[in-house]
Amino acid sequence: MIFVLFALAGVYTIAKSSKDKAPQSLGPSSAQDNTPVLNGPLLPSLRVHPIARLYKELNLTPRRMTPAVIASIVSTLCNLLSPLSIGLILHTVVAGRNSILSRLGIVTLRSQILTLGAVALAAQAADLLLEYYQRKKWREISRSLEHDLRLKTVAHVQRLDLAYIENQRSGQLKSVIAGDTTQVNRFFESGVDEIMRMTMTFVIVGAVFFALAPSLALLALLPQPLLLWGFRHIQRRIGPRYQELGEKTDEFGHLLTNNLAGLTTVKSFTAEDYEVERMANASEAVRRVNVEAVDTSAFYSYLMRMMLLGTSIVILTLTSLFVVVEALSFAAFIVITYFTMTFIQTTRRLDESYDLYKRTIASIERIFQLLDTEIAIPTGRRRLPLKHVRGDITFDHVIFEYNPSVKVLTGISLHANSQETLAIVGVTGSGKTTLVKLLLRFYDVNAGAIRLDGVNIRELSIQDLRNAIGLVSQDAYLFHGTVYDNIVYGRRTASFDEVVMAARLAEAHDFIEQLPEGYRTVVGERGEKLSGGQRQRLSIARAVLKAPPILILDEATSALDYETEAAIQRSFQRLSAHRTTIIISHRLSTVRHADRIYVMDAGKVHEQGNHTELLDQDGIYANLWRMQTGDVFSDKDAVIE
Ligand SMILES: Nc1ncnc2c1ncn2[C@@H]1O[C@H](COP(=O)(O)OP(=O)(O)OP(=O)(O)O)[C@@H](O)[C@H]1O
Ligand SMILES: [Mg+2]
C-alpha cells in the first residue's frame, strides 16, 4: 500500500510539476540538458500541456499509438499475473481446491495446479514477447517523432527572419533542432512505457494489497508524508544545481566554438596561453558544479532508495507477523512478497523516469517556442514571374534602424531604371550593405518604401523577389563541398558547361583548372582552402550562373588585383547590358562607368550623378577621386576609409 500511495504521489508530482514552466532537472543525466531557453516570450499556446500539443500537431493518430499502448498495458498485466498465479497455486495447495477453477469444470487438485502453472508460464512468455513488440513499436514512434520535429524546426528556421537568428546565441538553434528533438525521441522510446508500467503497477499492487490485507495497507500509509516530502525535496535541491551545470557547460561550449573558429587570430596574437587559461577556468567551473550536482543527486537518490527498501522490509516483516497470527493466508503472503519485489524493481527507476520526463517537457517547450516564433517578414501575395521582371528599382525616403536609437538610414531615395547600372559609394558603415539587405527583404524598412517595377516589395512574393536578384555579397559564403557544388548553387538545374561558362566570366576557370581536382576540389568549411580572391570569384560565378534580372555586387572585387578586376569588369559590362546592376565599392575606378553614382554618408545620399557630373560638382566624390588617382596624394590604392 505504501507503494501505491508513494506511486500516486509520484504520479501526482509528475502531473503537477509538468505544469511548471521552468525546466528543472534531476538525476546525473541532466548534465546534457544545457540548452538555454530561446530568446523571446513564452507564447500562450504553451499553456496547452506540451505532450498534448505534440500529440495534436504531430499526427500521433490513435492508429499509430494504440498498438504500442496496448502492448505496454498487456505486458504489464502479464508481468503481474505470474506472481498472482503462483500465489493462487499455493492457495490451492493449502486449501485443497480452487473454487473458481472448480466452477469452470477443472475439478481435480492436480489439474487445477497444472492449469495455474500453465497460466503463470503463459503470462511470463506473453510478457516477454509483448515487451519485444512494445519496444519495437515505441521505437518506431519515437524515431518518426524525432524526424518530424527535426523537419519542422529546420524548415521553420529557414523561413525565420535574420533579425531573429542574429539575436540567438550561436549553437542555440542547433541544440533545439538536434538536441531537444533527440530528447523527445529518448522519452518516447522508453519513458512513456516506463511511466505507464509504473503507474499500473502502483495501482494494481495497491488494489491487491487492499483486497488481501486492508489493515496492513492502512499501516503502510503512515510513512507516506515523509516519502512525499523526500521526493519533493530532492527536486527542489537538485533542480537548480543541474540548471547551473547546464549554464556552465554551455559557457564552456561557447568558448570552445569561438576559439576553434578564431584559431588563426588566436595564433597570430600568440594568445594560446590566454585562451587555454580562459578555457581552463570555464572547464574548472563545469567540473566543480558537476561534482556538487552529481554528489547531491546521488546522495538523495540513495537516501530515497534506502527509504523505499526500508519501507519494503517493514511491510514484509509485518506481513510475516500477520501470517504468524493467522490474520493473513500463506498464499496472500507469497503474493504480497512477490508484488513487493516487482514494485521495488519498478520504482528503482522512478527518479530517472521522472528526470527524463521533466527534461523532455522542457525540450518540447523549447521546440514549440521555436515553432511558434512568428516570421516577422511575411511574404506578399503578388507574384512576379522571373521573365516579367524589368528591374526598375526605387528607394523612396527609406528610414531604417537595426536597433531602436541607432538610425542607420535616415531617409534615402535612389532610383535605377531597368537595365541601368547604379553605383553606391560611401564611407564604411554608411549603410550601403544595409540597402541591399532591405532590397532583399532580410529586414523591413521602418518608413518609406522600396519598389520593384513600381510595386512595393512588401506586396511581392518574397521568393519571386529574391529569385529576381543575384547577390555577390561582401562576405561571400562558400559551403563545404566542391567548387562545382558551390557554383551550381546559383542555379541547381544548370549543366556542367554552363557552370564552366559562368566560371570563365568570373575569371575563375583558370585557377579552378589548376586546383588539384579542378571543379571537384573540396573547398573546406566556408571555403577556407581557397584564397580570399578565389572565394570572391566563385561567388561571382555563382551569381552569374543565376543570371538574374538584377545583379548586386557588394564589394565583389575588393579582394582582387587590378588586372583580374579589370577582366571581370569587362565580363560585367557584357552581362550588365540587359540587366539592372547595383555596384557597391570603395574603389571608384570600379564604379566610374555606372549610369548613376550615389555618394552616401551617415545614412543619407549626399551627391548623385554620373562620373563626369560628380567631378564637376567638385564635392566628396571629386575629392575621393583625386585621392584615389593620386592627383592629390601619390597613394594609388587609397580607398575611401
Ligand atoms: N545586423 C546588424 N545589427 C545591428 N547593426 C548593424 C547590423 N548590420 C550593420 N549594422 C550597423 O549598420 C551600419 C551600416 O552598416 P552597413 O553594413 O550597411 O555599412 P556599409 O556601408 O556596408 O559599410 P562597409 O563599407 O564597411 O561595408 C553600421 O553602423 C553597422 O554597425
Ligand atoms: Mg558593406
A few lines on this structure:
This protein is of the alpha/beta class. The protein has helices spanning 2-17, 50-57, 62-95, 99-103, 109-159, 162-166, 172-212, 214-221, 224-261, 263-268, 272-324, 330-347, 350-372, 432-439, 462-467, 483-488, 496-505, 509-514, 532-546, 562-575, 588-591, 611-617, 620-629; strands spanning 393-403, 406-416, 421-426, 447-452, 455-456, 469-472, 550-554, 580-584, 596-601, 604-609.
Secondary structure layout:
Layout: H1 2-17, H2 50-57, H3 62-95, H4 99-103, H5 109-159, H6 162-166, H7 172-212, H8 214-221, H9 224-261, H10 263-268, H11 272-324, H12 330-347, H13 350-372, E1 393-403, E2 406-416, E3 421-426, H14 432-439, E4 447-452, E5 455-456, H15 462-467, E6 469-472, H16 483-488, H17 496-505, H18 509-514, H19 532-546, E7 550-554, H20 562-575, E8 580-584, H21 588-591, E9 596-601, E10 604-609, H22 611-617, H23 620-629
Parallel strand pairs: 3-8, 3-9, 6-7, 7-8
Antiparallel strand pairs: 1-2, 1-4, 4-5, 9-10
Helix pairs in contact: 1-7, 1-9, 3-5, 3-7, 3-12, 5-7, 7-8, 7-12, 7-13, 9-11, 11-12, 17-19, 22-23
Subcellular location: Cell membrane
Transmembrane segments: 67-93, 202-222, 313-339
GO molecular function: ABC-type oligopeptide transporter activity; ATP binding; ATP hydrolysis activity
